[in-house]
Amino acid sequence: MTHFLQLLLLLALVIIAAKIAGALANRVGQPAVFGEILVGLVLGPTVLNVLGWPLFAAPAEAGVGESPTLLPALRDLAEIGVVLLMFVAGLETDVAELCRVGKVAFWSAFGGVVLPMIGGAAVAVAFGFPLYWEGIFIGAILTATSVSISAQTLIELGALRSREGSTILGAAVIDDVMGIVVLSLVVAFARASAGGLDVVQIGIVALRIAAFFVAAAIAGRWLAPVLRWTSSLGVSQGVLAAAVVVAFLYSWAAEYLGAVAAITGAYVAGVLVARTEFKEQVDAGIHPLTYSMFVPAFFIGIGLQANGRELGERAAFTIALVLVAIVTKAVGCGLFARLFGFSTKESIRVGAGMISRGEVGLIVAGYGLANGLIGREVFSASVIMVLATTMVTPPLLRLLFPRRDGAAVSVEETIVGSPEPAKASYP
């Protein structure tokens, strides 16, 4: 069988497995992404190792000793999925909403970034990892928050529009922005100091980062005229095609010119496109493109690259990472909510609602693995951490929030005017 036919078969398996697993996860009260990651682990070397089956072995025309090429091909598709996923996240980030949510949400997000960052780096050092830059990058993985599962649970409890629910949603959006900034800085400075800490080189990188964001903002002023022009061409999906080109170019410029992660450029592009009159048109078109194939390739690819069997020697590290991820996020967010006016009970609820990691944590971990910032055992531990924090959040929220009979809001009411719940639609 040729490589192309093997790839077609693998993609068919990936998409079917992702969608079925996502549907089953929803039926047991978990987000679809949980099922997709889990089935990826099952298909990967942790359990079935499907890429090692004779069906997917290196084709006959491959040279002797040549490694199979299916995983690199799938990884390339997954990287495109990551770029599109972060572009969608940018589209769903309402800058006006960020300014409106207030200081409690901002400082809760701040605490939920700083404390996990410190805690993750401390755990890494305690288990023998170097602080620069693997330890710091492990801390960056723990800064992520995904409240799609929290939003769905709060909807069921009728508490999404409560004071704590609104704060959780606002803090999660700010948390994502802060996490992207942290990732960009860590990646840039890690590359700059690869041969040792060079103050001059790091200074140059800082200038490149600043120049990229300034240039991105200036170029963003031309997005609306460009999109209007493409809409007048009379070609099919002209606006969507232009938006995808913008996402790809911003991603390229971010990493090649700005020294930051490519996904940062995609996120910035999404934020800028969202400020044009074509936001809804692009949003409607990008979801089918992204979630039909590229995102399943990403989430299943996570499992195919992770190997739970390698965690035998790192089992203690994995357990510590999970515990630190839960405690530091809950304490960091809850403590700052308490300091800025919430009661103790409200603060505990806010902290619990911010525990779950998700697609952002996986994106950061995957980027670190692809760029040599973390090893495969840390990557596998990070996948387990994401699954564990996702599982623990709904029971905690049901324990802490009283069910408000008759007060539940609809999913449609949730999504309108609030960017983060839309992440609940991530398949």
Q: What's a quick, concise take on this entry?
A:
Helix content is 72%, strand content 0%.
Q: What would the keywords be for this entry?
A:
mainly alpha, Na+/H+ antiporter like fold, disordered C terminus
Fold blueprint:
Layout: H1 3-27, H2 32-43, H3 70-91, H4 95-100, H5 103-126, H6 131-142, H7 148-157, H8 163-192, H9 199-220, H10 223-231, H11 238-256, H12 262-274, H13 279-305, H14 315-339, H15 344-353, H16 359-370, H17 376-400, H18 411-415
Helix pairs in contact: 1-2, 1-13, 2-13, 3-12, 3-13, 5-6, 5-8, 5-14, 6-8, 6-16, 7-17, 8-9, 8-15, 10-11, 11-12, 11-13, 14-15, 14-17, 15-17, 16-17
Task: Determine the fraction of residues in helical runs and give it as a percent range.
Answer: over 70%
**Which of globular, elongated, flat, extended, rod-shaped describes the shape?**
globular
According to DSSP, the number of beta strands is: 0
Looking at the overall shape, the CATH architecture is: Up-down Bundle
CATH C-level class is Mainly Alpha
Summarize model confidence as the mean pLDDT.
Answer: 84
Secondary structure tally, helices: 18
What is the CATH third-level topology name? Na+/H+ antiporter like fold
- Helix and strand content put the structural class at mainly alpha
Q: Which H/E pattern describes the elements? A: HHHHHHHHHHHHHHHHHH
> For the terminal residues, how far apart are their CA atoms?
31 Å
Q: List the uncertain runs.
A: 63-67, 406-427
The value of Rg in angstroms is: 21 Å
**How would you sum up the major sheet?**
none
Count of separate structural domains:
1
Strand content is under 5%
